[in-house]
Amino acid sequence: MPAVLEIEGLRKTYKSRRRGERHALDGFDMRVDAGQVHGFLGPNGSGKTTTLRTLLGLIRADGGRMALLGKEVPAALPEVAGQVGAIVESPQFFPHFSARDTLSLLAGAGEVPRQRVDEVLELVGLRDRAGERVKTYSLGMKQRLAVASALLKNPKLLILDEPANGLDPGGIREMRTLMRDLAAAGMTVVLSSHILGEIQLICDSVTIISLGRRVAFGPVDEVLARYSGGSVRVRLEAVTDLPPAADALRRAGVQVTAYDDHLMLAGVDKPANVTRLLAESGLYVSELAPVTADLESVFLELTATAPVPGQHRQVDESRKVGGGSAGGWGA
Ligand SMILES: Nc1ncnc2c1ncn2[C@@H]1O[C@H](COP(=O)(O)OP(=O)(O)OP(=O)(O)O)[C@@H](O)[C@H]1O
C-alpha cells in the first residue's frame, strides 16, 4: 500500500527569549497508508498540532523529512495542496456570512464547482441551516462547517484536528459514519482526537505521540494486542487479602496495580503461576481473568498520563515509555 503521508525524524524547537528552547518535536516519525482512517493521538502539548502545522507548511521544521501523496513537502506543497483538505485548530469564519455563502466563497477561490457546496452541506448535516449566519451557529455547527470546507475540493487526503469537538453524541456518530464512508470511497483520513473510544471505533490504524516522539503505531488491533500482553485481573476471596497479595506478587517481580477490590497484573505469561504463588502464601484467588486493553488504557500507559490519586498532573509531566509491556514474569 503506498504511503499518503510520511514523516521521518521531524524536529521542531520553539525558541523564546523568556522561556528558552522547547523541543516540540524530537525526531518524530509517522506513516499513513492510502485509504486508511488513521488516528493521531497524544496528550496535551505532545506535538500533534505542531506536526500538522509543519506538514501543511504553516511553520518550518528544524530537521527531518516529510512527504504528502508521495511528494516531498514543503517543496511540493503548491503541487499537492489541491488534493489535501485540512482543519488544524478552530478555523475562523466571517460571522455575518451564512454557511452557504462561506462555502461558495471558498469554492469560487478554489475553482470548485458550485454544486459541490450543496453536496458537502448535505454530507455534514447542515443543509437545512445553510442560509443562517455563522454567528448564530452552535460550536458543533461551526465544526460541521469546518469539515464541509475541508471536503469542498474532494481531497485525496483529509486532515482533521479534533473534528468531534463540540459535537453532540448523535453528531459524533454521524461524523464517524462520514469518515468511514469517505475512506470507503478511497479518501485517506487523518484524525487527531482525545476521544479515544471514538478513535478505536473509527480508525484502522493509529500513531501515538508523547513529548514529540512516536511511542506506538500500527493497526489498532495490533497496537491493542501488543500492549495488552499478559494483563490479568485478580480478585481474592477477602479484600483484606489484596495488600499482602500485592506484596507477594511484587516480590516475585510481577507488575501490580492495586485497586479497591482487585489487582491488575502486567506481563503475566502463565496465570497458573499467580494462583500457585498466592496459594503458597495462604491467599485464595476468586477470579483470575485475562484483560484485553482498550485504546484509552494503552494511551494512558504509553504516555504516562493516567491520573494519580492526590496529584494534579502538569501538562509536560508525561514521560517516554519504551515499547512493550515491562515485567515479563511468569516463565
Ligand atoms: N508558538 C509556540 N511557541 C512556543 N511554544 C509552542 C508554540 N506552539 C506550541 N508550543 C509548545 O510546543 C509543544 C507542543 O505543542 P502542540 O500545540 O503541538 O501540542 P498538541 O499535541 O497539539 O496539544 P493539544 O492536545 O493540547 O492541542 C507544547 O509544549 C507547546 O507549549
TrEMBL record:
PROSITE patterns: ABC_TRANSPORTER_1, ABC_TRANSPORTER_2. The keyword ATP-binding applies. Residues 310-331 are annotated as: Disordered. SUPFAM superfamilies: P-loop containing nucleoside triphosphate hydrolases. Keywords: ATP-binding, Nucleotide-binding, Transport. Belongs to the ABC transporter superfamily. This is ATP-binding cassette domain-containing protein. It comes from Micromonospora cathayae. The lineage of its organism: Bacteria, Bacillati, Actinomycetota, Actinomycetes, Micromonosporales.
